[in-house]
Amino acid sequence: MHKQSNQPLSWQCSAFNDLTPHQLYAVLQARTEVFVMEQQCLFQDMDGKDAACHHLIGWTADQQVAAYVRIVPPGLAFAEASIGRVLTTKIGRGTGTGKILLLKGIQQTHALYPTHNIRIGAQQYLEQFYASFGFLTVSGMYLEDDIPHVEMLMNKTNAAQLAGP
């Protein structure tokens, strides 16, 4: 894969049923590349939740996934709305895409579920990154798939401030 130039990404947020087979395949391929191959983590990625979620994807001009996040409705993973499967592929790394992705993910989650807080299960090494967006750590460290995680919470007021006017 090549490093993305400074061209802007095309952003898409779609319900599962609105993704084309090509788009779904590209997303699942990116998730496998990052979570299974790069992080060498064996886990059940396709966990039965995708069909109920929205999927925020940052596409390059040649239709490669540079960034992705799964927006989980309240009551499916946590009582609150959630953001998960957050990733940037090699194409998007080092370009600021991760920050844009998280900001857009928070904004989309707030737009979809404006009365709900957002809870995430964050890899612990990214705790400060998520904190910089207003997430507060609300649990001790726990292992998920042998990777240290913490739960973090953003209240709906903070999410609304990030959404802007």
Tell me the layout of helices and strands:
Layout: E1 10-15, H1 21-38, E2 54-59, E3 65-72, E4 81-88, H2 97-112, E5 118-123, H3 127-131, E6 136-137, E7 142-144, E8 147-154, H4 156-163
Parallel strand pairs: 4-5
Antiparallel strand pairs: 1-2, 2-3, 3-4, 5-8, 6-8, 7-8
Overview of the structural elements:
The chain has 165 residues and is an alpha+beta fold. The chain has four helices and eight strands, in the order E-H-E-E-E-H-E-H-E-E-E-H. It has helices at 21-38, 97-112, 127-131, 156-163, and strands at 10-15, 54-59, 65-72, 81-88, 118-123, 136-137, 142-144, 147-154. Strands 1, 2, 3, 4, 5, 6, 7 and 8 form an eight-stranded mixed beta sheet that branches. Helix 2 (97-112) crosses helix 4 (156-163). The relative contact order is 0.15.
